[in-house]
Design a protein that fits this description.
Length: about 325
């Protein structure tokens, strides 16, 4: 336990934690100490010291001090045990880093036209939905400085795959969808607005089904391949749509679909010329059928996916008709 605590404290240095929570301190001369207003109470005269070498804080006004865990106890009114759990989970470095990154990309979407133009091209125009899905835009070139202002080290940003070893942003000219699981961002999906590598996920698990918490309550569930498919379907009112991000389902995603055997599944994969989508859909159909689910295959016109179907003028009514016509096994 003691060793784990030390490791936890090393992974989240006190100053980094404070900076992320918008504490502003300035370095005292050239030493390892920073000074600022005490975040534990209101004050106008700075008396809160952070020693980055010892990883400790002390406030000369309220007389309280200690390490990161002590700070969490005091600032959040948590017990020791709660504080440790909080730090281990909520501040799992990458989770928090992805939250900040996604927020940055969301801001960028409104700063550069090309992201919004691309969304419009793909038929996504509902601003409320764009905000709800947390869609953003990575223009490239600015992320590093933004994250460093929160105290993230370059190594950590590199480790998460957000920059390459040369220091350049990994996501460049891409529309970004945060992949959420239990309201937590587990990965970022970037769709290129140009030709280079159409899509890319960060080198980590894609997690479970997209927004499964809000979809699992429906008896009828529509499963699609891509996040743009999901976006247009949600926009058209089909909120019972989830996405596997690709045609290959992880064991977690399969288990999620199988958790309710009374479920009716509508698989709506791309109608690829090379049959890849159709073949994947058939394999999945058999796996789910074996689990006792009522599975149906939605037949889109040749060469279409749900996104292009709506962009080409398909309406919610048309799509509802396709669902009605969907053949079961
Ligand atoms: Zn104080």
């Amino acid at each position: 336990m003691g060793e784990d605590l030390e490791r936890l404290k090393r992974r989240v240095p006190l100053l980094e934690y404070l900076n992320r929570h918008h504490w502003k301190g300035h370095r005292v001369s050239t030493g390892p100490e920073f000074l600022g207003l005490c975040p534990l109470h209101a004050e106008t005269h700075a008396s809160f010291y952070v020693n980055t070498q010892k990883n400790l804080f002390y406030c000369h006004s309220c007389g309280r001090g200690g390490d990161l865990i002590r700070f969490v106890e005091l600032s959040r009114h948590f017990s020791f045990r709660q504080s440790v759990a909080y730090l281990a989970e909520e501040l799992a470095p990458t989770t928090q880093l992805l939250v900040h990154t996604a927020a940055f990309y969301q801001l960028e979407l409104y700063r550069h036209r090309e992201g919004m133009d691309y969304l419009a091209e793909r038929g996504v125009h509902d601003r409320k939905l764009i905000a709800e899905l947390g869609i953003g835009y990575a223009r490239g070139g600015h992320l590093r400085a933004y994250l460093q202002s929160f105290g993230y080290s370059l190594e950590r940003v590199l480790e998460a795959g957000l920059i390459n070893p040369q220091g350049a942003d990994t996501f460049c000219r891409r529309v970004i969808f945060p992949c959420r699981q239990q309201d937590r961002i587990v990965n970022l999906y970037g769709r290129s607005i140009g030709r280079a590598f159409p899509h890319r996920l960060l080198p980590r698990s894609k997690g479970g089904l997209f927004a499964w918490e809000s979809v699992r309550h429906f008896r009828d569930v529509i499963l699609v391949e891509g996040l743009f498919d999901l976006a247009v379907l949600w926009q058209a009112g089909f909120r019972n749509t989830t996405c596997a991000i690709g045609t290959h389902l992880t064991p977690t995603q399969l288990d999620q679909l199988r958790e309710n055997p009374d479920r009716c599944m509508y698989i709506t994969f791309d109608q690829d010329e090379n049959q890849a989508g159709q073949n994947a859909a058939h394999d999945l159909l058999h796996a789910l059928d074996k689990a006792g689910l009522n599975v149906r295959l939605v037949d889109l016109p040749a060469g279409h996916d749900p996104n292009s179907y709506f962009v080409a003028g398909g309406t919610a009514q048309d799509f509802a008709h396709l669902l009605e016509e969907a053949a079961s096994l």
